[in-house]
Write a structure and sequence with these properties.
Layout lengths: L3 H14 L9 H8 L6 E3 L2 E3 L1 H5 L12 H14 L37
Antiparallel strand pairs: 1-2
Helix pairs in contact: 1-4
């Protein structure tokens, strides 16, 4: 299973390769921004259609205020679906900071940001 740190790096790379500009107010804006490039997105070594992957993000995640907001929400989604180990998150660099749970989050555990050990 991927670690939160590994997955965070992958999400940051994905968001930056797509040149996402925040805030993104709606899911439709997010899908359009993700699909602007014809290149597929890579997730865990596999290539996926960007528009299809973008549609998996729930409507209630919007608006997305920043890259950190996107990373935190997608990380929580993967934890909720059992694709990442459950760990606490709080707002900060890329949403995976040691400390308490995100305000309004049901996620619990322990997280580490890139460069921390």
């Amino acid at each position: 299973m991927y670690t939160v740190e590994e997955q965070t790096r992958e999400f940051v790379t994905m968001a930056r390769e797509r040149n996402l500009r925040f805030p993104l107010q709606t899911k439709d804006e997010f899908i359009e921004a993700m699909a602007a490039s014809p290149e597929p997105v890579r997730f865990r070594g596999q290539a996926y259609n960007a528009a299809e992957v973008s549609r998996l993000i729930p409507d209630f995640f919007f608006p997305l205020a920043s890259e950190d907001d996107l990373i935190r929400k997608v990380t929580e989604l993967l934890m909720a679906r059992g694709l990442l180990p459950v760990q606490p998150l709080e707002p900060g660099p890329h949403g995976a900071v040691k400390g308490g749970a995100v305000k309004g989050s049901a996620v619990t555990g322990d997280a580490v940001t890139e460069g921390e050990s």
